[in-house]
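Job type: complex structure
Entries:
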Amino acid sequence: MNITVKFFASLREQTGTSDTTINSAGALTVIQAWQQASGLNEMPENTLCAINMEYVNADAPLSDGDELAFFPPVTGG
Amino acid sequence: MIELRDSEFDPLYELAEFQKTLSHGKYGACCNFIGSMRDFNEGDDVSQMTLEHYPGMTEKFLQKICDEASEKWPLLDCLIIHRVGDINPNDSIVLTAAWSAHRDASFAACRYLIEELKHRAPFWKKENTTEGERWVSENTKAND
């Protein structure tokens, strides 16, 4: 399956990428996709994750065609 | 209504213009919050700021927050306008407003709109300070 992965703000700078696509033959969770897309084992503390623009936990499963996003705590307003 | 703006806006003008679109005689209360950019933060001077967002998800969450407020309180309408991109001190960053027949609902809903926005809407501030650029790590709590 193919997953589009996006990184925002400080995580975009840390990983050096804003957008990438990963492929997996088998099932994949958010944390596994993080490791594959970022090349980093550990996800920084307080990282927020979203699948198809809805917040999820790091152990949530992914489906083919999902858009997965990683970002730090939000600071708008 | 929710809207993102990539240039300076006048919140009082926006408030007045939006209010003209509401049914006259139906609302008895409008409560609003305007957030603007300070030229200091955490003990440093801040000369400029950039607001990053997640196109699509940001709009979706602003709309979701408006819809939730309308379910919780008897509102005639609510409005959120938020800046993105480069921002200068004194610029308005955000406007939230809620209209209702009586004041209790508009006070509570306006507070809900800004607090939920600050906790859930994907925006990130990067400040330009005398010490260099830095990401704002988290929003202040409501009672700070």
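Summary: The first strand of chain B starts at residue 2 and ends at 5. The interface with chain A takes residues 35, 51-54, 56-57, 60, 82, 93-94, 114, 117-126, 135-139 of chain B (CB under 8 Å).
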